[in-house]
């Protein structure tokens, strides 16, 4: 086994640990691990990420289902347009984007550069959601779903599906606030429902890639198993560690990584 593979599997364990310790966020590391450690091209990396994120989220969704924290009505309203968008993006939109997109002077915009730059921007947004102090839930607010809110959820579901399809990230930091403010769920229900939605979105999105690329199933399944083991280990460690402080620290790390990836890609010293 090569050193890059060993480092990649260590990365898989860390991804699982972060997910188990903080309840989310670790999936944002999957694409960078695949691209910069294992040297997998960005399009394939986003597909692999969808499989890992989907499998990992399914583990968390099962646990939340057993605790009664999944709202299936909200899941259906949000996930149906998201699934259509993500499958269409992976099956038709992404393969249709040419490798060379355009030139602006000496700057060449390629498909890989676009994906990784967009992903880096997503990392910056995700890091802000982890670092910034979240507002407390408003118990007395009128958060009951309405036709207008449901319509907005359908639109945002489709938009989230498009983003997830392009970059291979789960998007929990986008989904949770939507479920809290538009579906009227409490935070625990929103997190549980979000994991359920992410699991469905990611697996369906991955299915859209089948037939477009060659999948190394042995490697991908092994990577996923190690990540899931990391989740259980992280859940155990979370009993002894302050997850809120850890998530904030992880947010700063994601911020630095996002800035570095963006700089590296735009400066032309990336892949």
Automatic annotation (TrEMBL):
The chain crosses the membrane at residues 7-37, 43-62, 74-93, 113-132, 152-185, 217-237, 249-266. Coiled coil: none annotated. Keywords: Cell membrane, Membrane, Transmembrane, Transmembrane helix. InterPro entries: TM_pro_TauE-like, TSUP/Inactive_protease-like. It is found in: Cell membrane; Membrane. One of its GO terms (cellular component) is plasma membrane. It is a multi-pass membrane protein. Pfam families: TauE. Its main location: membrane. Belongs to the 4-toluene sulfonate uptake permease (TSUP) (TC 2.A.102) family. This is Probable membrane transporter protein.
């Amino acid at each position: 086994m090569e050193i890059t593979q060993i480092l990649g599997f260590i990365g898989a364990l860390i991804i699982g640990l972060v997910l188990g310790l903080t309840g989310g966020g670790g999936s944002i590391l999957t694409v960078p691990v695949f691209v910069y450690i294992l040297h997998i091209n960005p399009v394939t990396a986003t597909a692999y990420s969808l499989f890992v994120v989907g499998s990992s989220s399914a583990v968390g969704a099962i646990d939340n289902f057993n605790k009664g924290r999944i709202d299936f009505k909200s899941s259906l309203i949000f996930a149906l347009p998201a699934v259509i968008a993500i499958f269409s993006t992976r099956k038709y939109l992404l393969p249709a984007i040419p490798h060379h997109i355009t030139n602006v002077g000496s700057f060449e915009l390629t498909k890989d550069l676009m994906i990784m730059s967009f992903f880096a921007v997503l990392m910056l947004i995700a890091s802000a959601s982890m670092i910034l102090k979240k507002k407390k839930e408003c118990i007395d607010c009128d958060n009951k779903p309405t036709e207008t809110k449901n319509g907005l959820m359908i639109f945002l579901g489709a938009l989230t599906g498009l983003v997830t399809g392009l970059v291979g990230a789960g998007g929990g930091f986008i989904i949770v606030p939507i479920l809290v403010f538009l579906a009227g769920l409490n935070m625990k229900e929103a997190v549980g429902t979000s994991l359920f939605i992410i699991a469905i979105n990611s697996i369906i999105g991955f299915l859209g890639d089948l037939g477009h690329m060659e999948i190394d199933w042995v490697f991908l399944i092994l990577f996923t198993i190690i990540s899931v083991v990391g989740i259980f280990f992280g859940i155990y460690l979370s009993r002894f560690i302050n997850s809120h402080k850890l998530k904030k620290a992880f947010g700063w790390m994601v911020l630095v990584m996002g800035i570095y990836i963006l700089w590296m890609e735009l400066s032309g010293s990336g892949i």
